[in-house]
Amino acid sequence: MKNKTLITAIVGCLFSASTVAMERFHGVEDSSDENLKSVCKDYMVNSYLKNDPALFFYLLPESVKNMEDKIEKSWFEDHTKTFGNDPVVEYELLEFDNDLEKKEHRGHKVKIINIKYKAGKMDKLKRSICAFEQFKNGRWYLGQKP
Fold it and tell me: The pTM is what?
């Protein structure tokens, strides 16, 4: 019985932590290259490919909050255009460049990760980027999604 209670407590903690973690318009603090690559990969696999906008909205800056409904509506339409109507669970190809480009845009630091991917109904390889932009609050937000 002790083990069942312990497992229930752990699952409860994980669930509540993930609920808090997916608060919209939150961004990330850790801007290390490895962390941003990890966030980009998580986004590409668990959000973009699987048509789940939770992580996407978590990574958006609060300045786009007034466009939230429009963005959410277009999310699902864009997914169908890119991958087709059938559910897609894995990429045929997903590659990330090792080195990040570092730039500035309108006075904000920007880190760019070049990616290549192919999945679903796509006939050919697509190149894109995950661009993270640092705002005045010190947090990093998705400046451009693939």
Answer: 0.79
Instruction: Report how far residue 101's alpha carbon sits from residue 111's, in angstroms, rounded to the nearest whole number.
Output: 6
Please tell me the distance from the alpha carbon of residue 88 to that of residue 91, in angstroms, as a whole number.
8
Give the separation between CA 48 and CA 34, rounded to whole angstroms: 20
- pLDDT tens-place string over residues 33-54: 999 999 999 999 999 999 999 9
Tokens of 114: 């070049």
Integer CA distances (angstroms), 142 to 84, 87, 108, 112, in order = 24, 25, 12, 10
Question: In this predicted model, what pLDDT tens digit does every residue of 56-86 receive, in sequence order?
Answer: 999 999 999 999 999 999 999 999 999 998 8
